[in-house]
TrEMBL record:
GO terms for cellular component: plasma membrane. This is TRAP-type C4-dicarboxylate transport system, small permease component. It holds the Pfam family DctQ. The keyword Mitochondrion does not apply. Keywords: Cell inner membrane, Cell membrane, Membrane, Transmembrane, Transmembrane helix, Transport. It is found in: Cell inner membrane. The keyword Cell membrane applies. The lineage of its organism: Bacteria, Bacillati, Bacillota, Bacilli, Bacillales. Residues 30-157 form the Tripartite ATP-independent periplasmic transporters DctQ component domain. GO terms for molecular function: transmembrane transporter activity. It is a multi-pass membrane protein. Its main location: membrane. Belongs to the TRAP transporter small permease family. The chain crosses the membrane at residues 21-42, 54-72, 93-114, 134-155.
Length: 164
């Protein structure tokens, strides 16, 4: 059983590695796009009509996928005061409880994210004419990643418990 859990976690870690590269590429693209926009506006005197909208869409993807990625890495901002003042058993319990709460949040992102996609799929962005489906697709995808990462964090806790 431990092998199944380890295999699951290694697959999730590979998915997160791909997500990390995706985030890095989006960040580079957004930086180039914004720099180009600033150059076009202030040096050439002719701003690009589409760059701000695309930068917003990229920022949505960066935020949503980045949150799922940071959650698995343990680098999301958190309040550790409770953990600092509790014993080892309570800390272990909290380390399992928090991912279960995150699963509920992830399921809400998935369910309502797909519902949102259904409602906005016929809308288009004003300057790029891109379907609003694409920027909003980040919401359920992020929910799926958070769900899988939450399960991986729970597995990590049980594997650690089994090792000690």
């Amino acid at each position: 059983m431990k092998t199944v859990f380890s295999t699951y976690n290694s697959i999730i870690d590979r998915v997160n590695r791909i997500a990390g590269w995706f985030i890095a590429i989006l960040l580079v693209v957004m930086t180039i796009l914004i720099s180009w926009q600033v150059f076009a506006r202030f040096v050439m005197g002719s701003p690009l009509e589409f760059s701000e909208e695309i930068a917003r869409f990229i920022m949505i993807w960066l935020t949503m996928i980045g949150a799922a990625y940071a959650y698995r890495k343990g680098t999301l901002i958190s309040v550790d005061v409770l953990i600092e003042f509790t014993g080892r058993k309570i800390t272990k319990s909290l380390n399992i409880l928090v991912p279960f709460i995150s699963i509920i949040f992830a399921l809400a992102l998935i369910i309502y994210g797909f519902d949102l996609l259904d409602r906005v799929s016929s809308q288009t962005a004003p300057s790029t004419r891109i379907s609003m489906f694409w920027p909003n697709l980040a919401i359920p995808i992020s929910g799926i990643l958070i769900l899988f990462n939450s399960i991986a964090l729970i597995i990590d806790e049980f594997i650690e418990k089994g090792d000690s």
